[in-house]
């Protein structure tokens, strides 16, 4: 037991009422948190970790939940201990935001789109601290400086949609810290962010905690983030706590099978050293694993030369084109049959646009795309439709890419019907085979997308991409929204299919550890250009471009003894990709530092 904990949860049970009767979100959970400590709560989606934190804020009731048992003891600065489970909403309003702050997972939905950043930041200060308008604005400026937002005076006048994801998340952190709460609850605050921004925000939260003595309850499913942040760890599984200990105990000597499998499923940067070809991960408790490396072939499948895609910025009365967004600039690479080329970089570097341009879902301005001898750029719409049999895409969000009103059987069969490849009972047999391929029970064929978990939905998206036996699959952040253990299973599945069917992947991601695990070749993108390109071993073991080195440095490592400090992370702000109409970019020129390892010599802006 801790001396004088700030918060103590005792035997918490939360139920949700549904049409089919009550569903238990949290069954029986107890833990406590001390002043100045970071407690990480880990588990996959549905384990009850967010429900526990929403119960502490008494927000779970607004989402249809009910605290049916347990005590939530909170030590107020002046008011002594209170049981939050029994507190009336009037007092909860004083505690919320003032004594317990919360950082939500999705900053865009946590901010109000119709009020300026300044108005939202000063609101809490004026309600809880009785500050005048000018005092609150001065404090808001101070807070934005603390969270390292550039040009804070301008930011106060802006609206949330005018800020990038990382900036919005910093504003949400500033709002949560505004009244100097005793306890800060952070619910997956970095899941949707790039490695570099994530690294900065984790370092920032750590510094704010040390300076203010706030206790932090950090909820995440990313074990590398836990190693970076935690003092103590609580592991949750299906609504129960299965293990608790210091961060060193959990990482070095896990006791529970579930904790062991969570740690096994984390791809670690550097674990592929000395291996020439990617190989699937060994997962605990999964039978029949084929872990042979996937060498691929030397036969060329895709050649891209000088690919350039720009988007017009229109404005004024006649909607004239005023400038261009240079999304992809002079991109060239090749991909062999049966191999994986990964494009890696931060949000906005042009990697998704590059993938869509190759499929001509976005029309490129210039360049050549050759897929197995077919010049994709010269095809008329009818021929392009035919060529698309050979190239398919797996999108980032499987829920958005599936039709909510169609059964899964029809969704996977749709490409075959569209192209007249199979008919009648033959379609059903082929769909059943595809379900076997992606390790889903055939009984799921009659289900709808909302009845599936995220990982299962992503498997359906893979099955649908495979329906036409394509040669090339472009996977756009296909695993970034998934839990660690599910992510590992989906990656293994993709690699298994590659070994079996000789598929080629263009794998688009911002997760360096995942890229190292699956790639034969890697291209690092920055501001629309590839700044470094080569085999996986060369790029990861001998990074030459300063941007690649900065990316590597930012990746959190799942080892509590190798934490990053804030001084390790000196990222330059990304310049704007918008240029005037008369701007002529330089061509991309490369220096070959070792055979097949190219580094950009043109000024990339980094």
From TrEMBL:
InterPro entries from the UniProt entry: AAA+_ATPase (IPR003593), ABC_transp_ATP-bind (IPR050319), ABC_transporter-like_ATP-bd (IPR003439), ABC_transporter-like_CS (IPR017871), Oligopep_ABC_C (IPR013563), P-loop_NTPase (IPR027417)
Pfam families: ABC_tran, oligo_HPY
EC code(s) of this entry: 7.4.2.10
Topological type in the membrane: Peripheral membrane protein
Domain spans labelled ABC transporter: 7-263, 313-552
Gene3D superfamilies assigned: P-loop containing nucleotide triphosphate hydrolases
Record-given protein name: Glutathione import ATP-binding protein GsiA
């Amino acid at each position: 037991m801790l001396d004088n904990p700030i918060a103590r949860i005792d035997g918490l049970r939360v139920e949700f009422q549904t049409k089919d009767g009550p569903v238990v979100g949290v069954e029986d959970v107890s833990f406590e948190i001390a002043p100045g400590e970071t407690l990480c709560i880990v588990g996959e989606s549905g384990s009850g970790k967010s429900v526990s934190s929403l119960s502490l804020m008494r927000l779970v009731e607004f989402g249809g939940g009910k605290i049916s048992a347990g005590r939530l003891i909170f030590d107020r600065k002046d008011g002594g201990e209170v049981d939050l489970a029994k507190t009336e909403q009037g007092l909860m309003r004083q505690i919320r935001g003032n004594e317990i702050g919360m950082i939500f997972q999705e900053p865009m939905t946590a901010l109000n789109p119709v009020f300026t950043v300044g108005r939202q930041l000063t609101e809490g200060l004026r309600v809880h601290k009785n500050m005048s308008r000018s005092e609150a604005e001065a404090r808001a400026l101070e807070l934005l400086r603390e969270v390292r937002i550039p040009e804070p005076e301008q930011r106060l006048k802006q609206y949330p949609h005018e800020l990038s994801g990382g900036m919005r998340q910093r504003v949400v952190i500033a709002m949560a810290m505004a009244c100097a709460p005793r306890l800060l609850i952070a619910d997956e605050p970095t899941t949707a962010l790039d490695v570099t921004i994530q690294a900065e925000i984790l370092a920032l939260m750590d510094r704010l905690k040390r300076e203010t003595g706030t206790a932090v309850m950090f909820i995440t499913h990313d074990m590398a983030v836990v190693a970076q942040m935690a003092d103590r760890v609580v592991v949750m599984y299906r609504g129960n706590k299965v293990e608790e200990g210091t961060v060193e105990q959990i990482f070095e000597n896990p006791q529970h099978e579930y904790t062991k499998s969570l740690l096994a499923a984390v791809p670690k940067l550097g674990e592929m050293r000395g291996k020439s070809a990617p190989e699937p991960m060994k997962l605990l408790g999964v039978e029949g694993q084929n872990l042979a490396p996937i060498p691929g072939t030397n036969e060329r499948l895709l050649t891209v030369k000088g690919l350039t895609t720009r988007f017009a910025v229109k404005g004024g009365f006649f909607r004239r084109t005023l400038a261009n967004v240079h999304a992809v600039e002079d991109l060239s690479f090749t991909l062999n049959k049966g191999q994986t080329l990964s494009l890696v970089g931060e949000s906005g570097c042009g990697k998704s646009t590059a993938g869509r341009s190759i499929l001509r879902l976005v029309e490129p301005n210039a360049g050549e795309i050759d897929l197995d001898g077919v010049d994709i750029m010269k095809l008329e719409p009818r021929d392009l439709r035919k060529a698309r049999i050979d190239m398919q895409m797996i999108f980032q969000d499987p829920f958005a890419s599936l039709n909510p009103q169609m059964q899964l059987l029809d969704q996977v069969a749709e490409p075959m019907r569209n192209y007249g490849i199979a008919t009648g009972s033959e379609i059903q047999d082929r769909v059943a085979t595809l379900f076997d391929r992606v390790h889903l029970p055939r009984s799921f064929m009659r289900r709808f997308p909302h009845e599936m978990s995220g990982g299962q939905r992503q498997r359906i998206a893979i099955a649908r991409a495979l329906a036409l036996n394509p040669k090339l699959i472009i996977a756009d952040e296909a695993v970034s929204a998934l839990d660690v253990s599910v992510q590992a299973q989906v990656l293994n599945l993709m690699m298994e299919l590659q070994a079996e069917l000789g598929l080629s992947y263009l794998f688009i991601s911002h997760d360096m550890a995942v890229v190292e695990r699956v790639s034969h070749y890697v291209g690092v993108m920055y501001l629309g250009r590839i700044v470094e390109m080569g085999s996986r071993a060369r790029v990861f073991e001998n990074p030459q471009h300063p941007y690649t080195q900065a990316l590597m440095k930012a990746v959190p490592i799942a080892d509590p003894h190798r934490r990053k400090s804030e001084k390790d992370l000196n990222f330059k702000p990304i310049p704007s990709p918008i240029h005037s109409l008369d701007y002529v970019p330089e061509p991309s020129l490369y220096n070959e530092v070792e055979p097949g390892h190219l580094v950009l010599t043109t000024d990339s802006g980094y």
